[in-house]
Amino acid sequence: MANGIIKVDSLVKEYDSLRAVDGISFEVYEGEVFAFLGPNGAGKTTTVEILECIRPLTGGSAKVCGYDVSKESDVKEIKKRIGVLPQDFNALEKLSVKENISLIGDMYDKHLSASEVIKLLDLEDKANAKFDSLSGGLKQRVGVAAALVSDPQLVFLDEPTTGLDPKARRDVWAVIANLKKLGKTVFLTTHYMEEAQVLADRIAIIDRGKIVALGSSQELISTYGGLKLLVIRKGPKDLADTLQAKFGQVTVNKDGDIHVKVDDVDELWRIMDILTTMRLGSDVELQTPTIEDVFLKITGTRITDEGDLT
Ligand SMILES: Nc1ncnc2c1ncn2[C@@H]1O[C@H](COP(=O)(O)OP(=O)(O)OP(=O)(O)O)[C@@H](O)[C@H]1O
Ligand SMILES: [Mg+2]
């Protein structure tokens, strides 16, 4: 059985009358990338900051690296073992990358050298560049470097790619994938479905303070994603009729594409047989549900690029 590096039980956080975190329980295993996926205001940062011992909890309990976030004597032990990239990460603008990382390293009794961390994150070219001259993606990479300088076992990354362009986002993904290779446990928050699906071993979907689903993306997709969809681009009308008569669950969109919901592999083969007989093969595509479909199924809404619910 995998070791739990984070154990959260019935955690509650109230801000006056608002229950921002509403009785959540979960475990994060050592060495995994665990994603908290949810829209703006879902309670991601609140949860993460409780685990980082920055905010007090209202109810329930949370243990990090075996220590209790609510016990004053344990907080120091937790802080020694974790690295943090806050949602609003910023460094000193007029200092270089290396100076910033050294400064943060000096706050810890034991830490890696700035040069080691810079090498680890492939920032050698930028070591002497001033922080304010960097692109958004590189700034986030410096943020991850700052989170790693204490050589933590567990790294919290709160929305590490929000606001980045697609190329910079993928660069940060590579950095995160590398953290896992280095043996770190990563707790990632995001509102990007694809990010969670690509990076995380397990995903907790959080909505209005509650975890509404938890599992690997494969588990979530097979439980909630619905059926696979076979798309036959601009298929003939008689094909649509034949498929509808035999299998049901057929629609034709405005471009004339035939969409068939496929229940299982057996059905897929039977449909393929018909396509072969009719000598149709090109422009046929099988679409597998994604985490986006899972989210839609569970919450009835989608998340926009900005992180809001539609
Ligand atoms: N210090 C605070 N005082 C009062 N309410 C707060 C405070 N911090 C957060 N909240 C509220 O708690 C809820 C959860 O906020 P939180 O920042 O944890 O969400 P989030 O999932 O991190 O969202 P985002 O994607 O926008 O960062 C929101 O409704 C927010 O307005
Ligand atoms: Mg947040």
Q: Can you offer a commentary on this structure?
A:
Helices cover 36% and strands 26% of the residues. With 310 residues, the chain is α/β, with parallel strands linked by helices. It has two domains: 220 residues, P-loop containing nucleotide triphosphate hydrolases (Rossmann fold), CATH 3.40.50; 62 residues, Alpha-Beta Plaits, CATH 3.30.70. The chain has a six-stranded mixed beta sheet, sandwiched between helices. It has a four-stranded antiparallel beta sheet with strand order 2-1-4-5. Helix 6 links the parallel strand 7 and strand 8. It is elongated. It starts with a strand and ends in an 11-residue tail after the last helix. The site of adenosine-5'-triphosphate has 14 residues, from strand 2 and helix 1.
Annotated CATH topology of the largest domain: Rossmann fold
The first-level CATH class name of the largest domain: Alpha Beta
Second CATH tier, the architecture of the largest domain: 3-Layer(aba) Sandwich
**Tally of individual domains:** 2
> CATH superfamily assignment of the largest domain?
P-loop containing nucleotide triphosphate hydrolases
Structural class: alpha/beta
Strands of the largest sheet, in order across it?
Answer: 6-7-8-3-9-10
Describe the secondary-structure layout.
Elements: E1 4-15, E2 18-29, E3 33-37, H1 44-51, E4 59-64, E5 67-68, H2 72-81, E6 82-85, H3 97-105, H4 114-120, H5 136-148, E7 154-158, H6 166-181, E8 185-190, H7 193-199, E9 202-207, E10 210-215, H8 217-224, E11 228-232, H9 237-247, E12 250-252, E13 258-262, H10 265-277, E14 284-287, H11 291-299
Parallel strand pairs: 3-8, 3-9, 6-7, 7-8
Antiparallel strand pairs: 1-2, 1-4, 4-5, 9-10, 11-13, 11-14, 12-13
Helix pairs in contact: 3-4, 5-6, 8-11
Residues 15, 18, 20, 38, 40-46, 87, 191, 307 line the site of adenosine-5'-triphosphate (ATP).
